[in-house]
Amino acid sequence: MGALTSVPPGKDTMSSTFHVRGGRPLDGEITVRGAKNLVSKAMVAALLGTSPSVLRSVPDISDVRIVSNLLSIHGVKIEHDVAGGELRLDPSNVERAHVADIDAHAGSSRIPILFCGPLLHRLGEAIIPDLGGCRIGDRPINYHLDVLRSFGAIVDKREMGIHITAPNGLRGTKIHLEYPSVGATEQVLLTAVRAQGVTELTGAAVEPEIEDLIAVLQKMGALISLQTDRTITIEGVDELGGYDHVALADRIEAGSWACAALVTKGDVFVRGAQQKPMATFLNIFRKVGGGLEIREDGIRFHHPGTPLKAIALETDVHPGFMTDWQQPLVVALTQADGISILHETVYENRLGFTSALNDMGARIQVYRECLGGSSCRFGRSNYNHSAVVSGPTSLRGADITVPDLRGGFSYLIAALGAEGVSTIRGIGLIDRGYESFRDKLTALGADYWEGEE
Ligand code: EPU
Question: Which of 55, 117, 278, 370 could be bridged to 190 by S-S, CB 3.0 to 4.6 A?
Fold first, then answer.
């Protein structure tokens, strides 16, 4: 196994410029590996063990490098076979890290908040800097801090960051989440597994990535049961070992390439894409008129050659249509015949990316009201969280800047489907969650090049 190549703190990979000549159907085969939103959490879980863990099918994305570096500065020894997708994490010597180093390595990632429970168990304290993440809403951490407090942690907000201690240890507790937050559910899991006594979490998020994290923790020796009513019960144990786990496939990446196939009138086989975690996406893809062939080793997504259909769609927590599929799908809806209605209920500010699509020729109007379904928690606020997409519209090349990870990939999809050349700035942000997307574009026959002009 090769040694980890670390990314120097502050390295700016976000500023590179990408050019796409659109109009070519994407055609061919690509592979997706482990889900970014599981892999990063499973890596943090390794901190809880007394022996090394092995994570397999790890994608080569910058979020993995960020978490590797964060673990390294906390004393975890890491070996990474990048090509083989294998990560070995040895937490025998966990140690304190300096908040400035955490800040420098975390960049805009929100992962440090999930280090809190494991570090409290290992070291009795945790320090985290102010957190970033994609600019798709306020993205507060109040649920996380409330969760930690209810286990008995003391949260002290200081100038350099948030200092968290547990002078009397962490004790099992009853927690109810007012909204089924993915991160807060993971916070509970990563803290409760080694807390004293039983924890009962109601209102939990039940995304497939969370079920996979539960599987990882069970392999380490944790006692966790998941009921059908969003209740998770965790019996704390005194010690956890390591795990050997194959990460579930990245269903967001698979869905993104599926939308790219539709927009470019292409035909893409996504090797590794799994049916069950994508069931809701597959229903919507079919309703829009996309062609599907579901196989054991992957899913083929193609444009059927007939007009795409407009739909009404609401994003939701699992098992609903996930918010991360929304942005790529909106680009596909610009090509559908008629008026589509979209209601984003997970993030208050995830439709800002549509204005650049309008500059490319799309007709998308955003609204503050909850359109096309139930009212959501943003209904009485001023957030433009619903959209009406009128199609079909021809897209034309433009000069655009990546706003966030999924929005950025959506611009790439729009550029691939547009007439003429697009310039996409800040393309490096896409490396956070889309493994080797340049190689995949090449494999699918896209016409692109990188460089200033
Ligand atoms: N929220 C709060 N307070 C908190 C935490 C969350 O109000 O303390 C709110 C958020 O502002 C948001 C909602 O709760 O409106 C849901 O947030 P959640 O905690 O579920 O999201 P997350 O854990 O921060 C993960 C993924 C996101 C994905 C969401 C929803 C990771 C690293 N990120 O975020 O993925 O959109 O769950 O499924 O797992 C992405 O991959 O591009 C991405 C943004």
Answer: 117
Helix (H) or strand (E) run with residue 186 in it: helix 182-192
Q: Are strands 244-246 and 27-31 parallel, antiparallel or unpaired?
A: unpaired
Strand, coil or helix: 389: strand
Q: Compute the distance from residue 350 Cα to the ligand 1 centre, in Å.
A: 12
- Domain, as residue range, for 335: 8-32+249-450
Tokens representing 384? 């433009």
**Which region, left, alpha or beta, applies to residue 8 given φ > 0 means left and ψ of -120 to 50 means alpha?**
beta
Does residue 357 share a domain with residue 242?
A: no
Distance 79 CA to ligand 1 centre (A): 29
User: Which residue intervals of 46-174 are DSSP H helices?
Assistant: 62-73, 99-106, 116-123, 142-150
Instruction: For residue 277, give the nearest of 327, 180, 211, 214 by alpha carbon.
Output: 211
This prediction's pTM: 0.95
Is 376 annotated in the active site? no
Residue 273 carries which side chain, given as an amino acid letter? A
**What's residue 140's pLDDT?**
86
CA–CA separation, 249 and 252 (whole Å): 9
- How many CA atoms, within 13 angstroms, populate the side-chain half-sphere of residue 127? 15
Q: Ligand 1 in contact with 167 (CB < 6 A)?
A: no
Instruction: Tell me whether residue 1 is in a domain.
Output: no
Does the beta carbon of 299 lie inside 6 Å of ligand 1?
no
End-of-domain residue from the set 246, 281, 300: 246
In terms of residues, how long is the chain? 453
List, run by run, the mean pLDDT of 10-residue segments along the chain (453 residues): 42 70 98 98 98 98 96 97 98 93 86 95 90 59 95 90 93 98 98 98 98 98 97 98 98 98 98 98 98 98 97 97 98 98 96 98 97 88 96 97 96 98 96 97 97 73
